[in-house]
Amino acid sequence: MKKAIIGFFVGILFTAVMTWQVGGSLMVQEYPSPFGIEETAARIQGNIQEAGWDLSGLRSPSNTIRRLGATVPNVLLVEACKPDYSKPILKEDSTRILSILMPCTITVYEKSDGKVYIGMMNTGLMGQLFGSTVASVMSNVAADQQKFITFDPSKPAPPLVSGKPGGGGGGTGKGGLQDLGGC
Hints:
Blueprint: H1 2-27, E1 28-33, H2 37-50, E2 54-59, H3 61-67, E3 75-81, H4 83-91, E4 104-110, E5 116-121, H5 123-128, H6 132-148
Antiparallel strand pairs: 1-5, 2-3, 3-4, 4-5
């Protein structure tokens, strides 16, 4: 009996340590890009629009940090919204707090290896944590996000929309951003 109790607690401890070690990497996903940072962001924006989403903005937190005098690699945040997906989450008091995840943000960044990467939240997994309505919506978001980062290299890249077309998910993808600030 004593061995069973010890085994049970060792199992709990092992599970806790593994969750702590691996949990973060399950919540975010990273993909290499075959293109430069701006072309990657432009292609993501084009795919977002083709999928029927609205561009909410493009921010560069690295520009903000550089203005403060620090040297950091390039980072662009491509923001998008699909009101059909946002509506059921924003409608309910119990899920409205998840507006903190809106707009959907995809990061494009450079690493010290000189390569460009794309980062996204694992929205499918995140959705599972918040009940059936959110899980259903986030499952659709996850499928769309995979389309956003699937590139056809035979097609030329669209122009980078460096605009905040309407903000808050109401944009049309047209217009110019005055300041690519971040943070």
